[in-house]
């Protein structure tokens, strides 16, 4: 893992960046939050997330919704896109992918609150939805529904 404090020289933003071969090799960049004194929600939605089943090697598909209340840091969106893309050839169960992404972002950003919802399409006739969060959200935070309904032939 190459997460580190970023400078203009180490950010992937504004530069050509190769697709990482694995989540472990992917670099996640963070930038200073210009409003650390304000509680607000930042949301990223990845409607075409893909990983591989570690048993069959077949692709698994999900909608990921990442909500967080920043403290000092924001995740840089290009690096997040490249990190999520690195799962495309990565074999892991749905639960592992979802929780690992949440934990890595929480470790990098040290947010006041973070939650991730992984809404996985069915394999073997059963959809698996996975949810993880860092703790209770602050009372001051407006936390909207993630907007992905339970599976009904999405």
Automatic annotation (TrEMBL):
Catalyzes the NADPH-dependent reduction of 7-cyano-7-deazaguanine (preQ0) to 7-aminomethyl-7-deazaguanine (preQ1). It is found in: Cytoplasm. This is NADPH-dependent 7-cyano-7-deazaguanine reductase. It catalyses: 7-aminomethyl-7-carbaguanine + 2 NADP(+) = 7-cyano-7-carbaguanine + 2 NADPH + 3 H(+). Substrate binds at residues 75-77, 94-95. Keywords: Cytoplasm, NADP, Oxidoreductase, Queuosine biosynthesis. Belongs to the GTP cyclohydrolase I family. QueF type 1 subfamily. The keyword S-adenosyl-L-methionine does not apply. SUPFAM superfamilies: Tetrahydrobiopterin biosynthesis enzymes-like. Gene3D superfamilies: 3.30.1130.10. Its EC number is 1.7.1.13. Residues 1-10 have a biased composition (Polar residues). The active site is at residues 53, 60. Pathway: tRNA modification; tRNA-queuosine biosynthesis. Residues 1-34 are annotated as: Disordered.
């Amino acid at each position: 893992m190459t997460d580190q404090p970023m400078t203009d020289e180490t950010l992937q933003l504004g530069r050509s960046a190769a697709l990482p071969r694995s989540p472990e090799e992917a670099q996640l960049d963070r930038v200073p939050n210009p409003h650390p004194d304000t509680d607000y929600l930042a949301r990223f939605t990845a409607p075409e997330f893909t990983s591989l089943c570690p048993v069959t090697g077949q692709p698994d598909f999900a909608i990921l919704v990442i909500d967080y209340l920043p403290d000092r840091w924001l995740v840089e969106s290009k690096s997040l896109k490249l990190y999520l893309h690195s799962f495309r050839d990565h074999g892991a169960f749905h639960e592992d992918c979802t929780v690992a992404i949440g934990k890595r972002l929480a470790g990098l950003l040290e947010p006041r609150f973070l939650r991730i919802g992984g809404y996985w399409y069915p394999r073997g006739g059963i959809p698996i939805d996975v949810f993880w969060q860092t703790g209770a959200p602050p009372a001051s935070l407006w936390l909207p529904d993630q907007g992905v309904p339970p599976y009904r032939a999405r």
